[in-house]
Amino acid sequence: MKEFQDVSRKTERIFSAELVDDNLFEWNVKLHTIDGDSLLYRDMVETGSKFILLNITFPENFPFAPPFMRVLAPRIEGGFVLDGGAICMELLTPKGWSSAYTVEAVVLQFSAAVVKGKGRIDRTCKKAFSKKEAESAYKRLVKTHDKYGWVTPPKAEG
């Protein structure tokens, strides 16, 4: 509740948050500000996308365990966005999470990562991201990084 109130009080509107069905454990976050020099920003202008819609689900033991965060819209390819809109960021995994992280810090980190990873709006696929796909991609991500660490494995290894 405190975290939601802190986010709601912000006057600087880099992002905004609202509860999903009045549930404190699930938020939809609208990321309004993306680096204006990025290709993603240009895609957003060209497609009329005013924000990136994220969904954050908090476990009951938050902040001692990471939230599950995924992109809902627009459909983004690259930029550390995986199947179903899952997000590949170490800080969103049990090993990379710190209870000191705030929602604001996580959203801002995603904003930087999606640009650094050269995320683009996928204009060819009209299919919406699904939560089931995102959860499956997240589990594969954690398994892969548990095996290899947080380096990109060679393409020959998948």
UniProtKB/TrEMBL annotation:
Identify which top EC class this enzyme belongs to: transferase
One Pfam entry name: UQ_con
EC numbers listed for it are 2.3.2.23
What is an annotated GO biological process for this record, any one?
protein polyubiquitination
Q: Which domain of life is it from?
A: Eukaryota
Tell me which CDD domains the record gives.
UBCc_UBE2Q
**GO molecular-function term, one example from the UniProt record:** ubiquitin conjugating enzyme activity
Span of domain UBC core: 1-151
**Cellular compartments per GO CC:** nucleus
Q: Which InterPro entries match?
A: Ub_conjugating_enzyme, UBC, UBQ-conjugating_enzyme/RWD
Q: What are the alphabetically sorted keywords of the record? A: ATP-binding, Nucleotide-binding, Transferase, Ubl conjugation pathway
> Which segments cross the bilayer?
none
What role does this protein play?
Answer: Probable E2 ubiquitin-protein ligase that catalyzes the covalent attachment of ubiquitin to target proteins. May facilitate the monoubiquitination and degradation of MTOR and CCNE1 through interaction with FBXW7.
Q: This chain belongs to which protein, by name?
A: E2 ubiquitin-conjugating enzyme
* Native source species: Nematostella vectensis
